[in-house]
Amino acid sequence: xxxxxxxxGKPLEGTIIVSGAKNAVLPIIAASLLCGEPxxxxxxxxxxxxNVMSKVISALGATVERDGSTLKIxxxxxxxxxxxxxxxxxxRASIVTMGPLLARRGHVRISHPGGxxxxxxxxxxxxxxLEALGAEIKMDHGFLDVSSKGLKGARIYMDYPSxxxxxxxxxxxxxxxxxxxxxxxxxxxxxxxxxTFINEMGGKVRGAGTSIIxxxxxxxxxxxxxxxxxxxxxxxxxxxxxxxxxxxxxxxNVIADHLKPLIAKxxxxxxRMMEEDDGIRISGKGVYNAVDIKTxxxxxxxxxxxxxxxxxxxxxxxxxLITETVFENRFMHVDELKRMGADIxxxxxxxxxxxxxxxxxxxxTATDLRAGAALILAALTAEGTTCIRGIHHIDRGYEQxxxxxxxxxANIIRDE
Length: 416
Ligand code: UD1
Prior knowledge:
- This protein has a four-stranded mixed sheet with strand order 22-23-1-24, with helices on one face. Strands 2-15-17-16 form a four-stranded mixed sheet.
- By secondary structure, the chain is an alpha/beta fold.
- The protein has helices at residues 22-31, 48-60, 85-90, 98-105, 124-132, 163-173, 189-200, 232-245, 260-268, 306-313, 333-339, 369-381, 391-395, 401-407; strands at residues 3-7, 13-17, 39-42, 63-67, 70-74, 82-83, 107-111, 136-140, 143-147, 155-157, 179-183, 204-206, 212-216, 224-227, 248-252, 272-276, 279-283, 293-294, 319-323, 343-347, 350-354, 363-365, 385-389, 411-415.
- The radius of gyration is 21 Å and the shape is elongated.
- A hairpin with a 2-residue loop joins strand 4 and strand 5 (70-74).
């Protein structure tokens, strides 16, 4: 069974380059289905999830080729409107192919994604938005059958600023007749990157990054080359690892503005960071104070950094309160951190973390992607050698994690 073996105690030092953002490239690959001409994506991270999304669009008729960090996509025709069940169940994010497929072909069949480790994760707001644009939705033997005789722009108020629903609606509306307004839209940087990509293909999207997105439908898109934004969650995870080990690292290919909520909290904890021309320099002493965080939609504290932040707090001075408001079941990492000696109590949607001096190595298992990052952080600071299993979760979102950390001096080995 593959696992990561990490011996803790070494401060991370050197330079690290952050990869392109997983959560930006996934909907962008889906959006490429809108266009019949060649698309080139630069800085497309080579991750399990990106490979699954590439397979999904290949099954629909696209050709996808990887050359280093470049993905070349061409979808001359959509030959098939059914997203394969085994791929959709492997990766929930494949649901964002629904909007562009519906826009280009007027019909899509996709298996209902169901739940996952961090909650039931319904898609009601995706469906409500597509219905408002004129789609007819039926459930058929576990598949969603979504069709339309021609999408029409509409004014859509989102009950909650869901990232995936905003993306699906934006992609469908990009080709709908007339104007669509998405109110209470998600404002994450990945939404802005998707809008930029749609516009580079000839679309007309304004206001992405604010709570109101204005989309004027166009009939045809043209080929383009797009560079994916840096992964703010990967960057944030490494910043926390460096701080926790008391290291000194220059983190390159980051947009500091995307990391504001994390940087504010790390500074509150007493960590020093400096913006330099080519990145963020972080130097930690491995000693810091406990702070409280509450996950929220952007620009609040990102839920995807909640688990790594909890691992960071396990060795702080004092007691920190972590409140998770975005997902219902995102404390799966707590039991694993406790196996390493962490002092954490869960009360409803909050976790109370009492800082201790040192974690101890233990065999642990990553239950989801960000839980995996939390365990890596814990292992890097722990006394002894930790074996982390379930690393396929980590490979979904952290490109060449052991190589990047080894270059910073970490004692980390992958055993296949
Ligand atoms: C995206 C990110 C994920 C991140 C999350 C929140 C990708 C591939 N994934 O996930 O890493 O943690 O944003 O920043 O970009 N909900 C509903 N009904 C819906 C849609 C969502 O109830 O129709 C709920 C979800 O169950 C969850 C909350 O809304 O509790 C937020 O979900 P959403 O913003 O949609 O996250 P995702 O797009 O799934």
